[in-house]
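Translate sequence into structure tokens.
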Amino acid sequence: MSGNQPRCSSTQVPVADTLATAYNAAPMAKQKKHPTGTIAQNKKARHDYFIEHRFEAGLVLAGWEVKSLRAGKAQLVDSYVLLKDGEAWLLGSHIAPLTTASTHVIADPTRTRKLLLNQRELEKLFSAVQQKGYACVCLSIYWSKHLIKCEIALGKGKKEYDKRHTERERDSDRELQRAVRNKGKED
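Result follows.
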């Protein structure tokens, strides 16, 4: 070694002053372990039915469906629950397949999906649906920790005048809230 070259230890620059690489970068922020919130809602069901009893059911899903639900690609507009042979099935829900996730699987976006309920809840649903006027509908799909759950409900169908009455009440409540909010601003 020649004597005119500087030693490495005297010319080293602290890590904070250099460009960050994969080896000396600061640790990334922790990601959330479980996604939260509602994936899809069936607003039409709330408009068409008086909701009386709600149930939380698990969903039997394929892997590509879970990835699509993480991306928010679900619709429940015309979905309903069919009770058959002691089991509950979700019909009419649409989960759009992702092009990147379902390349090797033939994906059926509107397939019938099984709902997971305990026997007592199934018996309540069967007895109520057999009565006149009750329907079992899906209200929403949401995350519960790391699981995907489906909120189903028993509802009685609304007549047309009931729907108009609900809209009138909602409009009057909105006007009242607007008047209360703007009361102090008019002075």
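Note: The mean pLDDT is 80.
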